[in-house]
Write a structure and sequence with these properties.
The protein has 526 residues and is mostly helical. Strand 1 and strand 2 form a beta hairpin. It starts with a helix and ends in an 8-residue tail after the last strand.
């Protein structure tokens, strides 16, 4: 549309000029010695316009020829930028897809060939992240060093390299190195939320509770941290600061620095109550716990609240009973009331509260408290019963299988009792654990033991007269169960030292001279 307007405007101007020139004829005389040029006014104007156009075209052509090197450099730069952009896209696609080797290869190639300082640093950082994901920490450190060297004096690039380095080191678990990498940014980079978060992770891993507390407060003011996480970190770090200051008394300064809502957090309240109890300020410790429990009911705080001196029992018991009106079926609160009554030697009330707690929840600690109560009341049977229940609830006891009656043993092939006593005096063997299903085990074949017929005669001739054994009692007078079990253990083997076999002079057939082996008989099934 604009082109048509300009064309129309030029046509109008040309028509106007032609009309004016036609109404005002005239001549133009140019005298250039020795020449004299005379032309009409219209011809002169047309000649000027043609000269201007020719001069303009010549100058534009000359300028284009002179700008060819710049155009070539710009074209080459655009081509290189497009190539770098393609490598960046392929590398990050591989990084997001988990193809870290391919991504690292692309980023390393980009780092080597790019002519942009910024892209070189970013390529080195990206290659370091890909190597970190593969566990190649040596290559990762090399690329981080290359990125640090490429950043030079650029503040923005230095902050980027420090943040990426700290993030990778924290993921590896090297909190101290990450903190060292972030050291240059703690002053100038404190305004950056990501830097604060990295510092918080490093300080938390190193248990620097003072720094964790301060950083959590800073992030909370900026609304840069989840509220639940901030409360948890504040609670843990604040309690650790209070416990650390208990030895030198500096916990009071820490307590004064805490805000009113921070003093109501459970761990902080517990630590402050413990410090106050150690300082002999039991009443103040009770008030601290009461405020925390009133803000948010916590069974642990209630149980700690119940551990107090006898002079604190009436006040704490009255306050705990007001909580019981709001939570009449809370087993933990009932147990805490029972503990308070125990501390105050209110045996009847303690028994009622503890029994009510057990009716709501079977708790080993409540059983232990009842055992202690009945022990004080000289009721040993009840005390032992509750102590046993407390132990069974606390310790994982094994599940014992039901007793089963073993089948009778096969005794037809057993040796004579005399020979069993003399030649088969077996050593004591540790009891074995019976398998759950003996039928599934292979049954050994029955073994018929043959005693050497002349063994007794050899034995009597070998021993002196004063060492000969007494008369052998009749077989019916010997209880065979004294020598054999009622049921054999499958696949059990016992060895008798060679010295014993040599002294007795009897051995089973097939046994080696060095030792004797006893194989139990197989069971008869069915």
């Amino acid at each position: 549309m604009r082109t048509w307007l300009w064309t129309l405007l030029l046509v109008v101007v040309a028509v106007c000029v032609a009309v004016v020139l036609r109404q005002h004829p005239g001549n133009v005389l140019l005298m250039i010695s020795p020449w004299r040029v005379e032309m009409s006014l219209t011809m002169a104007l047309l000649s000027l316009v043609a000269l201007f156009v020719a001069l303009y075209v010549v100058l534009r052509l000359l300028g284009w020829l002179l700008a060819i090197p710049d155009h070539m450099r710009a074209w080459s730069g655009r081509r290189a930028q497009a190539r770098d952009q393609e490598l960046v896209e392929q590398g990050w696609i591989g990084l997001f897809e988990g193809r870290y080797a391919q991504a690292e290869k692309g980023f390393v190639k980009l780092h080597r060939q790019t002519r942009s300082v910024t892209r070189r640093v970013l390529a080195a950082l990206s290659a370091a992240r890909a190597a970190h994901q593969m566990g190649e920490y040596a290559r990762r450190d090399q690329m981080l060093e290359a990125a640090q060297a490429g950043a030079g004096a650029d503040t923005q690039l230095q902050e980027t390299v420090a943040a990426v380095t700290a993030d990778l080191l924290l993921a590896q678990g090297q909190a101290q190195k990450a903190l060292d990498a972030l050291a240059p940014l703690q002053d100038g980079g404190a305004r950056h939320v990501h830097t604060l978060r990295l510092l918080l992770r490093a300080e938390k891993a190193l248990d620097h509770h003072d720094r964790v507390f301060a950083l959590t407060r800073s992030l909370t003011r900026r609304h840069a941290i989840d509220k639940a996480e901030a409360l948890q970190l504040t609670d843990q770090s604040g309690a650790a600061r209070l416990r650390a200051g208990t030895a030198d008394g500096s916990w009071r300064d820490v307590w004064k620095e805490l805000k009113s809502d921070e003093r109501l957090l459970p761990n902080i309240a517990l630590a402050a109550a413990a410090a106050l109890d150690e300082a002999g300020e039991g009443s103040e410790a009770g008030r601290v716990l009461e405020a925390a429990i009133g803000d948010k009911f916590n069974p642990t705080l209630v149980l700690v609240y119940a551990h107090c001196q006898a002079d604190q029992v009436p006040r704490r018991l009255a306050r705990a009973e007001t909580w019981l009106q709001q939570r009449p079926v809370d087993a933990g609160l009932l147990m805490a009331l029972g503990l308070l009554c125990l501390n105050g030697q209110l045996w009847g009330q303690a028994e009622r509260y503890l029994q009510r707690s057990l009716s709501r929840r079977d708790d080993p600690q409540c059983h232990a408290l009842l055992g202690r109560l009945y022990d004080r009341l000289n009721r040993p049977q009840d005390a032992m019963r509750h102590w046993r229940l407390a132990t069974e609830a606390r310790v994982v006891l094994p599940v014992l299988a039901a007793d089963t009656v073993l089948p009778p043993a096969e005794t037809q092939a057993d040796p004579d009792p005399y020979h069993a006593e003399s030649a088969y005096d077996l050593p004591a063997v540790a009891p074995r654990t019976m398998p759950a299903e003996p039928e599934s085990l292979p049954v050994p074949p029955a073994v018929d033991y043959v005693i050497e017929p002349n063994a007794r005669e050899h034995l009597e001739r070998a021993r002196p007269a004063d060492e000969l054994p007494a008369a052998v009692p009749p077989r019916s007078a010997i209880n065979v169960e004294d020598f054999f079990d009622s049921a054999p253990i499958p696949a059990a083997a016992f060895e008798v030292p060679a010295t014993q076999a040599g002294e007795d002079g009897a051995k089973p057939s097939g046994a080696s001279p060095g030792h004797h082996s006893y194989h139990p008989h197989s069971e008869k099934k069915g």
